[in-house]
Specification:
The protein has a seven-stranded mixed beta sheet, with helices on both faces. The chain has eight helices and seven strands, in the order E-H-E-H-E-H-E-H-E-H-E-H-H-E-H.
């Protein structure tokens, strides 16, 4: 079974090499091969050069795609899905907020054919979490509640980066949102398709804005619109 790790990148020169090294050494029971699909969303720092160096460091294991203009995390994720070849995929941010050593925890329900999708929740379980912004927490809880009300799910963290999917599942879903709103979009579409969704508790080493965090309150309002949009329209299948 092959795993595709999907990594959107935008201005992550400080952490990109370190997180890539961590990804490339992970061994997961049931996974025979791992590829890392890095999509650079037209970074303005040294990220592109670092990606090229990493591709040479791990020949044949990294697939690098470079956007010629900045489009957003959702667009980078869409490009990564289009270029992945794995049976399973997981989203990995290019910072150090999420720990690749937890891939086994995330992927086990899919590998053992119990789940189609797995969300890693920062709000459940006994794993360590860095204490940061109250209003981010409150906003996330509100968005998750609104999403749950319209999808009839009981997730605790729709905005988490760590989401894993069967390859055929994520390839079958049209991804429209270019920014951070891709999270509620994907959640609405897998709920509408009634895929089997599991949730596991993960650790979280969140960062501050000074350390490079990018999401803002504007993205929160866009997420509300996205939740309502895809609750009212069925756009959950790619047209053949």
């Amino acid at each position: 079974m092959k795993l595709s790790v999907l990594m959107p990148v935008y201005n992550e020169e400080e952490t990109l090499e370190m997180i890539t090294d961590r990804v490339m050494v992970q061994a997961v029971s049931g996974i025979d091969d791992t590829e890392l699909v890095i999509v650079d969303d037209c970074s303005q720092d040294n990220s592109k050069a670092i990606i090229e160096k990493l591709s040479a460091k791990y020949p044949g294991r990294i697939k690098a795609v470079f956007h010629t203009r900045n489009q957003g995390k959702g667009a980078a994720f869409r490009t990564a899905v289009e270029n992945m070849t794995g049976d399973i995929c997981i989203i990995q941010d290019a910072d150090l907020e999420y720990d690749p050593s937890e891939y086994g925890l995330m992927l086990e329900p899919i590998i053992n054919h119990r789940a189609d999708c797995v969300y890693g929740s920062r709000f459940v379980g006994s794993k360590a979490k860095r204490v940061l912004f109250f209003w981010h927490y409150a906003g996330n809880k509100f968005l998750t509640l609104l999403s749950n009300m319209l999808t009839n799910l009981n997730l605790t963290d729709i905005e988490t980066c760590y989401k894993a999917f069967r390859g055929d599942v994520i390839r079958s879903i049209p991804i429209r949102c270019n920014g951070f709103s891709v999270d509620p979009e994907i959640t609405a579409k897998i709920a509408r398709r009634k895929f089997r969704i599991f949730e596991v508790g993960i650790s979280y080493n969140g960062r501050t804005y000074a350390e490079g965090k990018k999401i803002t309150w504007v993205d929160g309002f866009r997420a509300i619109f996205t939740i309502l949009r895809f609750a009212l329209t069925d756009d959950s299948r790619k047209k053949s």
